[in-house]
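User: Sequence in, structure out. Go.
Assistant: Echoing your sequence, followed by the structure tokens.
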Amino acid sequence: MTKTNDPHASPSPWTGGVPVDDTTLAVTDTGGSGTPVLYLNGSYASQKHWRRVIAELGPGWRHLTFDERARGRSRRSADYSFEACVHDVGAVLAARGVDRPVLVGWSYGAVVGVHWASRYPDRALGVVPVDGAYPYDLFGSGRMTRDDVRRLFRRMGWAFPVARPLGLAARMSARQHAEINIELNEVVAEIEPVLDGLTVPARWVVASGGNLGGEADEMAEQRANLGPALARNPGIEVHATVASNHSKVLSKDFRAVADAVRAVVALSSERR
């Protein structure tokens, strides 16, 4: 693997594995000298979901996608924690010699993106959360308990082998799928200080309606919870609210996501 540390170099396209801890992450880097964009997947998703956004932005950008641990073509690990996923962002960027990308994250990836940008503001141009990173306390709301989540994933376990080739499930047990979901809900229940602390431009693309993981009223409540954070931090805004639901936003409203990336880069340029 060749690192591209020379700021004047124009790296070639590259696909391969990046070793991190006890795993190897499957990474695709389109190369080129354009502004780098790092795409962060949903909880059990793979990098294939970004193809329409990447095509819309086009070859003038440097696109980097990767599969999180045990998702897509990445290997299994002993650690599937949220902190491991945040750590992997920096590991992929370092391995590819990339500095100051735009982070674009969908669902779980949106939460990873805002956490990473909040911790390392000098290493990110900005962040585009796509229907995620909303403050919401699922367990405090009384809608579900942690054991409810575990029971739900046990019932869904039969479908995981079918869903994996579609990029909708990981190579994990039902219990591991459930624990990732539980931890995510614990993280977003405490995400308001992270949003308040963001100093890089952040532009949300907000979906509409319900989806497989949440009824329409629950999703509306989550999205509305972003409002107070927007009021407190003038650097973060909703770029677009689109008609598609959470599951379809990348395939149906990819143009809005691409436009939000362009907006973040324009804002970053104005600040220099």
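User: And one key feature?
Assistant: The first strand starts at residue 14 and ends at 20.
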